[in-house]
Amino acid sequence: MATSPAIGKHSEDRAGSVHRRVLRVRDGTSSVDVDAVASEVPLALSYNGESFAVMMATPLDLEDFALGFSLSEAIICSADELSGIDVHAHLEGFAIDMRIPQARAEMLASRARNVTGNSGCGLCGTRELEQVLRHPAPVAHGQALRATALQRGLAALGAAQPLNQATGATHAAAWAGMDGQLVLLREDVGRHNALDKLIGAMAQSRIEVANGFLILTSRASYEMVQKAATFGIGMIAAISAPTALAIHFAEACGVTLVGFARGTSHVIYTHAQRLISGES
Questions:
Q1: Is it the case that residue 63 has pLDDT exceeding 90?
Q2: Domain boundaries of the chain, sorted by first residue
Q3: What is the CATH number of domain 145-276?
Q4: What percent of the chain has pLDDT above 70?
């Protein structure tokens, strides 16, 4: 399917790649070419003027990222608690300052991170172990998903990733309805960032999490399950494998976790009753 404004931003808004001259070699023959390369820049996150973390990410959909990160990390409990987002571009990257209730800011002070998080790191630098392994509340169970709908969503995934098509370097997190049609998709060099951007976009659009499922173009690490479950998502399909801790989190939180979801094949690791075979 073609990418639509409902799924991704318009192409002229895409600033997630740069062009670089390269020496391309094919079958022993070399030539100078121009290649699209995914961008990766520091994002300095602060709340109420206080620095919290620096993350490495693709500079796209930054307001979605700010809101999604705040929700998936349980810094706020609802989108309404984020009263403002200011994004400032600098030569080195971006500064994102968010305004939250003072009570939330005071609780956050004890969670401040002390190192930079790279683009593949969900919780780098968190000082306390219990903050890393926080268990979200069990999610509400929606209707069962047909395997055919899962396959429909997977089949649409590739065409809905313009940045990855251009660079071959980004992950995506997508939200599909129970019929398998893609509703929203966000891309980033970091899988955690892609998921945070998607969660932020879903919160902005007030999408009902009981009426669809999450697709990840990555492995399902425990951080991905934790972030999704914190937002209330009850079904996750990843194209690669889950980790043992991810399976533990999914089982405990009532999340149906599917791995190796490719084509007409998949492996169900938890709460298998919510994914059924048969026609939609």
A1: yes
A2: 41-132, 145-276
A3: 3.40.140.10
A4: 86
Question: Which residue out of 77, 121, 124, 253 is catalytically annotated?
Answer: 121
Given this chain, do its domains 41-132 and 145-276 carry the same CATH topology? no
Helix axes 222-230, 191-205, angle to 10 degrees: 10
3-state secondary structure of 227: helix
d(CA 180, CA 164): 21
What's the CA gap between 214 and 206, in Å, rounded?
15
Residue 176 CB coordination number (10 Å): 25
| Secondary structure class of 138 (helix, strand, coil) | coil
Q: Does residue 124 have an active-site annotation? A: no
In DSSP terms, which residues pair with 38 in a beta bridge? 17
CATH number at 41-132: 3.10.20.10
pLDDT 10s digits, 127-184? 454 555 778 889 988 789 999 999 999 999 999 999 999 999 999 999 999 999 999 9
Summarize pLDDT for 75-127 with one digit per residue, the tens.
999 999 999 999 999 988 999 999 999 999 999 887 655 444 555 555 454 44
φ/ψ of residue 42, rounded to 5:
-75, 140
Mapped onto helix, strand or coil, the DSSP state of residue 151 is helix
